[in-house]
Amino acid sequence: MNRGSAGSIGSAASASEYRVCSNCRKVLRQEKRIRVSQPLTRGPSAFIPEKEVMQANGLNERTNLLVEEYSTSGRLDNITQVMSLHTQYLESFLRSQFYMLRMDGPLPLPYRHYIAIMAAARHQCSYLVNMHVDEFLKTGGIAEWLNGLEYIPQRLKNLNEINKLLAHRPWLITKEHIQKLVKTGENNWSLPELVHAVVLLAHYHALASFVFGSGINPERDPDTSNGFRLIAVNKFCVCDLANDNNIENASLTSSNFGLTQLKMEATLPCMQQQLSEAALTLPLSSNHGAANTPSESLLWLQWRPNRTSSLQSVQQTWRRQKPHLSLIADSLSELEALMERMKRLQEEKEEEEASQEEMATRFEKEKKESLLVVTGAFDDEMVSTSDVSRYIEDPGFGYKDFARRGEEHLPTFRAQDYTWENHGFSLVNRLYSDIGHLLDEKFRMVYNLTYNTMATHEDVDTTMLRRALFNYVHCMFGIRYDDYDYGEVNQLLERSLKVYIKTVTCYPERTTKRMYDSYWRQFKHSEKVHVNLLLMEARMQAELLYALRAITRHLT
Questions:
Q1: Does 125 qualify as catalytic in the annotation?
Q2: Most exposed of 1, 56, 95, 398 (fewest Cβ within 10 Å)?
Q3: Model-level pTM greater than 0.70?
């Protein structure tokens, strides 16, 4: 099969699935002619104003130097642009990713990119799938493998089980899974090869969380008529005004991607219901906040058939009610309340520390309460046009809460019994030389990264908040730190933030801009990107801890 046909395979995988709310689904059933297309937005992120990211990139020569040195694609992609809001971290990220994809290691280069495809496909992240389809071919990969898992060697197929467990329920991985991979005759994996594969799987599962959590947009492609490769990243319902997606009555045609002409021919009912509400939600912040200004946001409404009257209606509602005053006041009070809670917790910690028994009780309470954090504002039903599924085995397998009620109780992973610093680091470094140092540097960088600011406040110690974010992710994966008071999580993380964290970490493909905008409304976008970096690295470390513990048990 020639390169051109393989390119169309990768591009076909870029058409994706779209999440549809119940109201819109009723219309879709009644109006067979309506197709729901993925809206396109400008800039590297659908969640962050383009000018903010562009300003950061324009002022930072270091980012361009890093891309020249460590980018495997040779260009400044959208992920890198968003991460460049934190250049110190970006360097650690690019160095470790370049090492696992390009430097000497146990696995052949095409294998590395195909494993990245398999990992990203678990979350239907067609952005990453498409990126590594290209890289797979550039490094000499066999084009036929892109037809799906049935075309790949049995050795790669054998990774399917550990791939799905790592992505969704890593606590189920046992030494038996490891033994099965390393003792399968001619298709066996050596331990160095397996560690390399596990690192890649964990990296791309976590990176998919960052892609969805940051609203990473499709890459611009000069080879398509509209300047974009149609890589659906977030599965927004068309009616979700809060997503600020610009489709401007678009008709998108591209035979290269296996897409038929997509036209928006009707206004869905929930659009009408939310139109007046849009004026209440658009102006949530100033230039530092998470939402666009009213004038910017209103531009995205132009796709509606009767767009002039719609704009006038929203503007009139805006002028008449002026709701932003109360919303800004609310978000400011939320910020002050959070800072007050941080101060109080620090004072209480200095006065008297909780006993080990009390901290264990608080962990169990937080673990059970995470069950009540319900994610996904949309129904689970999908309108499917995706070929990403060709890279997935058992697509129905997904995240289940570690502390599920009414089921067999799983033992908590006590971090002190198997830590990254004392156990995981040394094992991974022994079997896959130097990657341990790079990963350790990356984990430490994101955990300790701070500018001592919170929104407009300066000289703030954010250690407590960063630790709560990191440990809450590990809590959802059943990992407990004996020296951490989990009562702090409930004090510091509001419910909307918990919903966002759980969605980005466990069901990243369900993330919407509404979720992103709903928490920390006075914080800067760079601070929210920092949150996403913490979530990504916490998730990757959790997956690695479970996998490396199983490898250690296999060796002993």
A1: yes
A2: 1
A3: yes
